[in-house]
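Postdoc handover notes: sequence design on the structure in folder B. Input tokens:
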């Protein structure tokens, strides 16, 4: 059977008729070996127009993805659709959101690339130094969170985790190559074109498509100190 089937709720009747029903018939006839065609079914939400209504030519609220790709790039379109909200929810299109996601991709690029140079040059902050304990904690916490969010199809929160990573390392005077390469691999399912460019710029002659997914190490997730707020008799 199929591991994961993603379909729109508005087509549920036909989906079930043409797939699940006929699969059951074939199973009863002994043609297929499983009683169900899917291990898991997820109904994704609908992308609505900016006015919150279903997109249609008559309403004049249709968004042409080709126009978005021309102005912002395919990665921005792809990333924004995953960042809009939970996958099962319907959500309205917002051009300001597209611009915001495009700005994030620019920040990822500038985290590793010196955009003041005429050619693609690695930023001086990217070094071959050993990451600090805090840098390792942030990196491995991000790997863990993004991995778990992808498994849950929570793409919007996975992207938010990577935004936190970028915010942290933007303030760092030294950005270890090890941590930067990890971010590129985490970004690659969401913004594959940007990730391939960065992977190449970091000195890898081959595509990252066959690179193993990063693994987190629990020993780097612990913190040395924790702030605990105590309140006694109404006073902090």
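Designed sequence:
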């Amino acid at each position: 059977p199929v591991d994961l089937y993603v379909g729109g709720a508005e087509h549920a009747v036909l989906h079930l008729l043409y797939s699940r029903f006929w699969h059951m018939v074939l199973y009863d006839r002994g043609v297929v070996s499983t009683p169900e065609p899917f291990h898991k079914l997820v109904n994704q939400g609908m992308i609505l127009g900016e006015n919150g209504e279903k997109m249609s030519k008559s309403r004049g609220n249709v968004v042409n993805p080709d126009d978005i790709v021309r102005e912002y790039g395919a990665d921005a379109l792809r990333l924004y659709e995953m960042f809009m909200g939970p996958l099962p929810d319907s959500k309205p299109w917002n051009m300001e959101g597209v611009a915001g996601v495009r700005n994030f991709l620019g920040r990822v690029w500038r985290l590793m690339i010196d955009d003041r140079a005429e050619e693609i040059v690695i930023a001086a902050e990217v070094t071959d130094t050993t990451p600090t304990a805090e840098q390792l904690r942030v990196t491995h916490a991000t790997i863990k969170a993004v991995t778990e969010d992808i498994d849950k199809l929570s793409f919007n929160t996975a992207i938010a985790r990577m935004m936190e990573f970028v915010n942290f390392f933007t303030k760092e005077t030294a950005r270890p190559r090890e941590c930067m390469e990890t971010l590129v691999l985490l970004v690659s399912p969401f913004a594959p074109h940007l990730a391939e460019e960065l992977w190449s710029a970091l000195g890898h002659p081959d595509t990252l498509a066959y690179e193993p997914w990063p693994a987190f190490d629990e020993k780097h997730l612990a913190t040395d100190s924790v702030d605990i707020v105590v309140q006694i008799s109404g006073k902090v």
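Context for whoever picks this up: The mean pLDDT is 91. Don't rerun without checking with the PI first.
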